[in-house]
Amino acid sequence: QVQLVESGGGLVQAGDSLRLSCAASGVTFANYAMGWFRKAPGKEREFVAAITRSGGRSTYAGSVKGRFAIYRDNAKNTVYLQMNNLNPEDTAVYYCAARSFISSSSTDVDYWGQGTQVTVSS
Q: Which residue from 53, 31, 36 is spatially nearest to 92, judged by alpha carbons?
């Protein structure tokens, strides 16, 4: 049974930092590119960041570039999202996703996590 379990969300103030984790089980983690998406109330789910299987290349949404960093530890079957200088517009449920290739699209995702809430107060 494949599971992606996110953790690390919470309530923070504008300017603070958070690190999200997504632990995978039931899959050969190194065979999957990983991504983070988010969904804010009343908005469509949007791409945040993605990383290749090896971790050698990553891509970001323009709204988070320079503030967020995605990285992975294949030995721990975990992908991380370091979020710095958070602002209220970053408030959303954050989901990790596994797919066979790096992409900013939310289609053709093989597995989704259950999500973790991030709330940024002003």
A: 36
Separation CA 16–CA 86 (nearest Å):
6
Label residues 73-82 b or e (16+ Cβ within 10 Å = b): ebeebbbbbe
In angstroms, rounded to a whole number, what is the distance separating the alpha carbons of residues 113 and 11? 20
Tell me which residue of 103, 92, 88, 84 sits closest to 9, measured CA to CA. 92
Here the tokens at position 42 are 């009343």
Who contacts 91 (Cβ-Cβ below 8 Å, separation ≥6)?
Answer: 40, 118, 119, 120
Backbone angles phi, psi at 25, to 5 degrees: -145, 155
| Helices and strands in the chain, H and E counts | 0, 11
pLDDT by residue for the chain (122 residues), tens only, comes to 899 999 999 999 999 999 999 999 999 999 999 999 999 999 999 999 999 999 999 999 999 999 999 999 999 999 999 999 999 999 999 999 999 999 999 888 999 999 999 999 99
